[in-house]
Specification:
Length: 480
């Protein structure tokens, strides 16, 4: 286990071991980060393949070329894999596996993927990267597997300080290299517009629903020393997967709405976000953390030096093969009802918790209206269906209809690419919804290649939407 705070080099050291391995896999928390590692490895002359739910890429090196990279024994190197955590290959044997952000085992929605990878990855050597709070739980879990564990602790590479004063609420104290953290898309655009009005700086923006490609483009604008975009306004989406030239992190708030109620940020969340200031690989300057509100700054000042409570439970979720067998015992019930019954009667030890299945249940209710086989139904429960967005959900159900009929799906019959791709707030939201639908099509194309075979057109749509989203983002000042 490589454990330590943000910007301590823990993942860097694990990746150096992976780079030297004969065979290996990197398990990423984000598609964006999986792409970054894929590019980094190939740029370092280490053949690497990419596997995410929506994308498959081979190594750019020609295995039959005399220039193909070799190891110290002059043997051709087999490609390693950079994969999103949900797509981790549990059947293939690797010399080295790297599982990043292992503390995500406690995530209420996705925690099961880290637990599954930890207990199921087939490797001689597994490197876990993340917070020290995960160590006690991992040790308990590995008592069952009989694995030996070595814990390597890291310290932050450059200094991080908490300011003793808050920042002016009128944004006149904003300076180059600042990152303002907000927790809603609306607030991000409002703050960015006010900063651009009050100062000479332009603002790049990053938030969770933004496609990874556009997050990278916004990050590039902020990181480019020749760009006018000297300030970043972002959500906690910057906590993982982006290298950013942030000198100072400023919290707009220390509470976050979870869809139902507003919750105070945890110590881990404050430390993870605040730790993005003063990135060692991009700037040697010390990082600074502050807030606009004095009370918020007091919370931050108490949280930053505090060691969070150890993680007590790891997320688990039902396997679709188990659900399939379970469903045969109740042939008269809908699969959505079977899943609810299974969740209600499942028994597990106090080292685990059942991940939130509310999203699964909502998707199950929608797709149960179509004549699907059990296998089709269960596969779709794992699909990246945006059930909260009516536009994306409506398109997803068109895809489901094609699956139920076994009919080829042309993307132009499901998505109107030319509708409302304007540089307005509504146009941007619509483009983001269509982009999620395009990614769903690509995900489905790997499972139903004869139905979702309009790949060339889909990739053209994808590029067009990313261009429209980027244009919309550059026009964000008009959204307020």
């Amino acid at each position: 286990m490589h454990v330590g705070p943000t910007n301590s080099g823990k993942t860097y050291n694990a990746l150096k071991r992976l780079e030297a391995a004969k065979t290996g896999i990197y398990c990423s928390p984000l598609r964006l980060l999986a792409h970054e590692i894929y590019s980094r490895m190939n740029n370092n002359n280490r053949p690497c393949e990419l596997i995410t739910g929506e994308d498959r890429r081979t190594s750019p090196f020609d295995f039959n070329s005399p220039d193909y990279p070799t190891n110290n024994m002059n043997e051709k190197q087999l490609p390693i894999i950079s994969s999103t955590i949900e797509m981790a290959n549990l059947s293939k044997f690797f010399e080295v596996a790297v599982i990043d952000e292992i503390q995500m085992m406690q995530d209420p929605q996705r925690g099961w993927a880290w637990t599954t990878a930890l207990l199921g990855i087939n490797a001689a050597e597994v490197h876990l990267c993340g917070e020290e709070t995960t160590v006690p739980l991992v040790k308990k879990l590995l008592e069952f597997t009989g694995d030996e564990i070595q814990v390597i602790k890291y310290e932050r590479l450059n200094k991080l300080i908490v300011s003793d004063k808050s920042v002016s609420k009128d944004y006149t104290d904003i300076k180059k290299g600042d990152c303002i953290i907000c927790f809603s898309r609306k607030e991000i655009f409002n703050v960015a517009a006010k900063i651009e009005k009050k100062t000479k700086f332009k603002c790049a923006v990053i938030y969770g629903s933004l496609p990874p490609e556009n997050r990278s483009l916004q990050a590039d604008l902020f990181n480019d020393p020749n760009s006018d975009y000297k300030v970043l306004v972002a959500s906690d989406a910057i906590g993982m997967g982006l290298n950013l030239r942030i000198n100072r992190v400023i919290f707009q708030n220390v509470a976050k709405f979870d869809g139902t109620k507003e919750n105070n940020l945890t110590i881990s969340q404050i430390k993870q976000i605040g730790g993005r200031a003063g990135r060692y690989s991009l700037t040697n300057d010390e990082g600074e953390v502050t807030a606009f509100n004095r009370d918020h700054l007091s919370v931050i000042a108490k949280s930053m030096p505090t060691t969070p409570e150890p993680i007590k439970k790891a997320g688990i979720f039902f396997d679709k093969n188990v659900i399939e067998r379970f469903s045969y015992q109740f042939p008269e019930n809908r699969i959505s009802e079977v899943i609810t019954a299974f969740s209600d009667c499942a028994v597990y030890s106090n080292l685990f918790f059942m991940c939130n299945s509310s999203g699964i249940s909502l998707v199950a209710e929608e797709i149960s209206k179509y004549p699907l086989t059990v296998k089709q139904f269960l596969l779709l429960l794992n699909a990246p269906i945006s059930y909260r967005n009516p536009v994306a959900l409506n398109i997803a159900l068109k895809f489901v209809d094609h699956i139920s009929q076994g009919k080829e799906c042309n993307i132009s019959n499901c998505i109107d690419i030319n509708a409302n791709l304007s540089n307005t707030k509504a146009g941007l939201q619509y483009s983001e919804a269509l982009h999620r639908s395009v990614l769903l099509y690509l995900w489905l194309s790997y499972h139903y290649p004869t139905i979702f075979c309009d790949i060339e057109a889909v990739n053209e749509y994808k590029l067009k939407l990313e261009s429209a989203i980027q244009k919309g983002l550059l026009n964000h000042a008009s959204f307020v």
